Amino acid sequence: MASAEVKVAFVSNHNGTTLTEVSLGSFLAPVCFLSRGLFLIVFHLGKGVLPFTWGAHLLLDFTTLIMPLVLSCTVLSDILHFVIMGIAVVDFVVLYLVYKNGKHPYQGSLLSTIDRFVQSRVESNLVPFVTVFRVLVNVKTAISILAVDFSVFPRRYAKTETYGTGVMDFGVGAYVMANALVCPEARGKHIRGSKISHVFKQLISVWPLVLLGFVRLASVKSSGYHEHVTEYGVHWNFFFTLAIVRVVASALLAVFPVNSSWQLALLIGGIYQVVLETTGLKSFLIYNNERSGFLQANREGIFSVVGYIAIYMAGVQVGRYLMKSRILVKDWIKVIRNLLLTSFGLFFTLY
């Protein structure tokens, strides 16, 4: 077997992992972000000021955010649950000690700061958690793309071939969702001019993605880099998918109200699933080995656009709600707490 064929086989024919592991892994980034915040709080309590240079900030971010994400999908992947629980326990202990230290001169200012935070409104200019989510998704995406070609990256985390759920499958969906949260429609920007001109502007605005798609296509073909054809197809890649999803979503939202985007998401996803089950489309996508013609050569990438559009429309609805919501942060904390308790209850019930 040639070297290129060996590399293709290395990233192909995987069945993914369990939904429990994927869900558990999604808690790592928030816990690491909490650790970073607690470190700054403890440092502030000890020093009173934050004389951090950009180098110190970079080292702190790399140690508390990047390194745990890298290790979690490499050498520590088999004990991921212990890693998350260990970091969470340390965070809770540190938080308890901070609250317990009532004699500290900075305790009053800290408590007032925390109180102002939990009483604040969930808006992007007050609680930039959407930005944090997008940053962490991009970081995890970059790590996974680079690590998937190495044996230290668990094969169960790679993209699945036909059925199953891999971490990278979850990642591409999260990436589309992250883009939808901050799109113009989610931020409440009004369409200026006719709807046709608006869609045309969106078509022009995706030229960087189209350019990157062609650059990647040309570089892969010219360099002889190994290609996982059944991922997106012979000529397709994720840049083309992002560009088409953005334009199609803009066209749909120019016709339908933004507040009905969740209904469009359900409708698109439901119709697509019915078509897959009642027609020969599923066999065409999964079991057809022919690559003649542009459609057959790139069927995985072209038809996957439908599912990504559904995810994008759902993300628009979530982003729209977050931008308009006047819910307090403390209410969101209660929701997250209840979700965590429910998740851990189901986990221990099943296992």
From TrEMBL:
Source organism: Cirrhinus mrigala
Listed name of the protein: Phosphatidylinositol-glycan biosynthesis class W protein
Keywords: Membrane, Transmembrane, Transmembrane helix
Membrane disposition: Multi-pass membrane protein
Pfam family, one: GWT1
Residue ranges of coiled coil: none
GO MF, one annotated term: O-acyltransferase activity
Keyword Zinc applies: no
Localization, UniProt: Membrane
Highest taxon of source: Eukaryota
Transmembrane helix found in the keyword field: yes
InterPro entries on file: PIGW/GWT1
Membrane-spanning parts: 83-99, 199-218, 238-258, 265-287, 302-323
GO BP annotation list: GPI anchor metabolic process
GO CC annotations on file: membrane
